[in-house]
């Protein structure tokens, strides 16, 4: 069974010879097991993206280590796929070739990679758009193409940095439901960053709340709201339930408290 271990990780960014380094993360300890959907919340600048970039292998920890399935993460790899807030699609390729791009780089032939890409486009409700240029799609559709591309490489873990942050409220709620359904089908590990407490509570199986810089995990909550949704409950009814609202207020209090304590440091 797959697992990811973040062991006592600290990150310092050097700022130059006469300036002390920025301590972005301090002693972060995190374990994700296959099938878990871990959501990270925290004030702006607390180190959420830094943590995701470490998991992706774009950055190396200053101290500590990260292991995926027992192997130390030492750089980017096909076992991890990243989805950012702004899609990173290639404008000169159509939808299906964007989804199949990573597979092409891995030397997979055209008919096989298109077959894999088609499966994921169907999963995301985009099968009718495979030959469209990406600029003809709406923001929500482009974001779904980015998710299809991430899934096409069949990663162990999906790393998502505010993937729904740029969408309007209705599209965002629909995308949340779609991602939860796909996650359940694939049973992959997910690490998902958001600024929305409601989104975090609804989507995750576990929530981590990070403190302002240097980022540490200060609170962890086990969640079962997505389970209720997957068992057939209406998404809005789940979000309007007293348990959900109670937890939302509890988490908001922590985050607002942190923001005030840090003096509103939004570096
Ligand atoms: N390459 C870098 N060099 C120097 N400082 C950096 C670098 N990358 C990030 N930082 C600093 O590290 C801290 C954490 O940044 P990070 O982007 O991880 O925050 P975040 O929690 O993702 O914030 P947001 O919610 O605004 O996206 C910030 O203070 C940021 O200025
Ligand atoms: Mg960020």
3D structure, described in words:
By secondary structure, this protein is an alpha/beta fold. It is built from ten helices and ten strands. The chain has a six-stranded mixed beta sheet with strand order 6-7-8-3-9-10, sandwiched between helices. A hairpin with an 8-residue loop joins strand 1 and strand 2. Helix 7 crosses helix 10. The protein is globular. The chain binds adenosine-5'-triphosphate (ATP) and magnesium ion. Magnesium ion binds next to helix 1.
Keywords:
267 residues, alpha/beta, Rossmann fold, six-stranded mixed beta sheet, four-stranded antiparallel beta sheet, 10 helices, 10 strands, 23% strand, globular, binds adenosine-5'-triphosphate, binds magnesium ion
Question: In terms of topology, how is this protein built?
Answer:
Blueprint: E1 3-13, E2 22-33, E3 37-42, H1 48-56, E4 63-68, E5 71-72, E6 80-83, H2 95-99, H3 101-105, H4 110-123, H5 139-152, E7 157-161, H6 169-186, E8 189-193, H7 197-203, E9 206-210, E10 217-222, H8 225-230, H9 235-239, H10 242-261
Parallel strand pairs: 3-8, 3-9, 6-7, 7-8
Antiparallel strand pairs: 1-2, 1-4, 4-5, 9-10
This protein binds adenosine-5'-triphosphate (ATP) and magnesium ion (MG).
Summarize the structure.
The protein is 39% helix and 23% strand. It has 267 residues and is α/β, with parallel strands linked by helices.
- How would you characterize the largest beta sheet? 6 strands, mixed
Proportion of strand residues: 15-25%
Number of strands: 10
Cα end-to-end separation: 39 Å
Number of helices: 10
Give the CATH class of the domain at 3-79 and 155-261.
Alpha Beta
Biggest sheet, spatial arrangement of strands:
6-7-8-3-9-10
Name the average pLDDT.
Answer: 93
Proper CATH architecture of the domain at 3-79 and 155-261: 3-Layer(aba) Sandwich
Order of helices and strands: EEEHEEEHHHHEHEHEEHHH
User: Which regions have little confidence, pLDDT < 50, spanning 5+ residues?
Assistant: none
Overall outline: globular
- For this structure, the CATH topology of the domain at 3-79 and 155-261 is Rossmann fold
């Amino acid at each position: 069974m797959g697992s990811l271990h973040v062991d006592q990780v600290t990150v310092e960014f050097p700022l130059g010879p006469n300036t002390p380094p920025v301590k972005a993360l301090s002693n972060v300890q995190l374990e994700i097991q296959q099938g878990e959907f871990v959501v990270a919340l925290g004030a702006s600048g607390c180190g959420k993206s830094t943590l995701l970039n470490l998991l992706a292998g774009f950055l190396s920890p200053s101290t500590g280590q990260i292991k995926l399935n027992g192997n130390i993460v030492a750089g980017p790899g096909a076992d991890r796929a990243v989805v950012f807030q702004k899609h990173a699609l290639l404008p000169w390729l159509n939808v299906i070739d964007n989804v199949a791009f990573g597979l092409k780089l891995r030397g997979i032939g055209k008919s096989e990679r298109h077959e894999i890409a088609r499966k994921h486009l169907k999963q995301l409700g985009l099968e009718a758009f495979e030959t469209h240029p990406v600029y003809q799609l709406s923001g929500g559709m482009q974001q779904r193409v980015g998710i299809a591309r991430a899934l096409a490489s069949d990663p162990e873990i999906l790393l998502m940095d505010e993937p729904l942050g740029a969408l309007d409220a209705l599209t965002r709620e629909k995308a949340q439901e779609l991602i939860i359904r796909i996650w359940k089908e694939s049973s992959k590990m997910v690490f998902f960053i958001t600024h929305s407490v409601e989104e975090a509570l609804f989507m995750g199986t576990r929530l981590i709340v990070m403190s302002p810089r240097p980022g540490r995990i200060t609170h962890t909550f086990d969640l079962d709201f997505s389970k209720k949704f997957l068992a057939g409950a209406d998404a809005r009814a789940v979000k309007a339930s007293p348990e959900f609202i109670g937890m939302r207020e509890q988490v908001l209090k922590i985050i607002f408290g942190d923001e005030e304590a840090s003096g509103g440091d939004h570096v």
